[in-house]
Amino acid sequence: MNKVLIANRGEIACRIIKSCRKLGLTSVAIYSEADAEALHVKMADEAYPVGPASAKESYLVADNVLKVAMDSGADFVHPGYGFLSESSRFARAVEDAGLTWVGPNPQSIDDMGDKERAREIAKVAGVPILAGSPRFDVGKLDTIEQAGEAVGYPLLVKASAGGGGIGMRLVERPEQLLEIAQATQSMAEKAFGDGTIFLERFIANARHVEVQVFGFGNGEAIHLYERDCSLQRRYQKVIEESTAPGLPKAVREKMVSVAASLCQHQKYSGAGTVEFVVDADTFDFFFLEMNTRIQVEHPVTEMCTGTDLVGMQIRLAQQDLAPIKQESINHQGHSIECRIYAENPDKNFMPSPGPLERFKLPSEAHDLRIDCGFQEGDQVTFFYDPMIAKIICHAESRDRAIDRMIQALEEVEIEGVKTNTKFLMSCLKHQDFGAGKVSTGFIGEHLSELTNN
Amino acid sequence: MSLIDVKTEITGNVWKIEVNEGDAVTEGQMLVILESMKMEIPILSPEDGVLKELRIKEGDVTTEGNVVAVIEA
């Protein structure tokens, strides 16, 4: 029982391989036609093709990935993030085939994947949720004004079938509600074939703070403190950090403890993240969703707590990890992660695929970690997402961590593709960022100062 | 009357074509949507005119600087 198939590519596949090595396990990579020469393939002990370049025909084809896992004699399947990581169908297929899924119980994936069920479970576990209304079918809006009063203004009218910002309309005053509700229903009917809507409280000045959790499957679960991921663009995180700046101690304590309770309540197994929206003015916080996988920004937590979350996932799957006590998790100092994207911030963040003609990242050190899936000479293809590397630093204070990150970014030399390196430095040097005044609107509000748009 | 080449600014997959040859188009109208690095990148008409020629079809890969359409303005 010592072989792990990694159903992923890029930096996360490389990162999982490192933990496998530390644990003395054999790593098996999969690759699409576009990735035959990729770093994760070179690093793994074994590697097998899984289809054409397009992810829909390779990394996302559960049956093919499972077949490779079985043919290779793998005992475990680690899904990483993205791709099949939140497919309960794939998780079940892995288990039905007699392999071990490195992740939560498929039922937990289903429970948290259904946003409404997740909300109910969170509510029962005592996690604060945003005020919301029941669903309204098309044309049945008789009681919507009372529902609006109960939720409170400003509020969002949301199409039940919508997502990622589509099918969402802001209502600032009660007299606008009926008209906007009708318009949203008619739009949703055309766009999604389902005109059902509901109302949800809107937080104007919001932060995104999430809590890393780890459950042991028996009702025991711990938190590993929070990450502030407020700096986002189009729902894509750009800079993440821990500790969340300026979050009052009592709020932080309550947030991390309700997140751990949610996992205990679910008998959650493995690594997960409970995401919250935080009102930046009042510090009220509300459950957004729970991600049932390892996350891109997990190194921030590892740097502050001295843990290896991926190693813990694998050891739990091996039934070789005794439950860890909350008291043994210590959070020290401050960590920041910057995501280097192949994109052009000065041209409306247009993706920039191409060859990495020159690719030099700063050297790793005790206070600097680089997670990367590319080498000089590699192609950054248009088939996959634009993230090429993550730089993570750690220091005793936030100010020092910011300085350390700026110093690290100054050492980045990438030619052949455009990157957001300068944009990241502009964010870090911005006086509001320095003052901890972060919000999900930060990049949009300061765009002209941060880019040459 | 002049012929205007509409070029792509990015390498990507042609995801959707929103117009047909012979259609009247207006400046800023979406002609084609490319998919690159998991993002949708619209190609807009640079001027008012008539779509004279489409040089791509859905599913094609197009590279930066390619002429995807010709507009008669």
Automatic annotation (TrEMBL), chain A:
Domain ATP-grasp positions: 119-318
Transmembrane recorded as keyword: no
Organism: Billgrantia endophytica
Domain Biotin carboxylation: 1-448
The protein's assembly and partners: Acetyl-CoA carboxylase is a heterohexamer of biotin carboxyl carrier protein, biotin carboxylase and the two subunits of carboxyl transferase in a 2:2 complex.
Descriptive protein name: Biotin carboxylase
Gene Ontology molecular function: any one: ATP binding
Reactions the enzyme catalyzes: N(6)-biotinyl-L-lysyl-[protein] + hydrogencarbonate + ATP = N(6)-carboxybiotinyl-L-lysyl-[protein] + ADP + phosphate + H(+)
Classification via PANTHER family: CARBOXYLASE:PYRUVATE/ACETYL-COA/PROPIONYL-COA CARBOXYLASE, METHYLCROTONOYL-COA CARBOXYLASE SUBUNIT ALPHA, MITOCHONDRIAL-RELATED
Keywords: ATP-binding, Biotin, Ligase, Nucleotide-binding
InterPro entries found in the cross-reference section: ATP-grasp, BC-like_N, Biotin_carboxylase_complex, Biotin_carboxylation_dom, Biotin_COase_C, CPAse_ATP-bd, PreATP-grasp_dom_sf, Rudment_hybrid_motif
Lineage of the organism: Bacteria, Pseudomonadati, Pseudomonadota, Gammaproteobacteria, Oceanospirillales
Pathway stated in the Swiss-Prot or TrEMBL entry: Lipid metabolism; malonyl-CoA biosynthesis; malonyl-CoA from acetyl-CoA: step 1/1
Organism superkingdom: Bacteria
SMART domains: Biotin_carb_C (SM00878)
Main function: This protein is a component of the acetyl coenzyme A carboxylase complex; first, biotin carboxylase catalyzes the carboxylation of the carrier protein and then the transcarboxylase transfers the carboxyl group to form malonyl-CoA.
Automatic annotation (TrEMBL), chain B:
Sorted UniProt keywords: Biotin
Pfam family, one: Biotin_lipoyl
Membrane-crossing segments per the record: none
Span of domain Lipoyl-binding: 1-72
CDD domains according to UniProt: biotinyl_domain
Name used for this protein in its record: Acetyl-CoA carboxylase biotin carboxyl carrier protein subunit
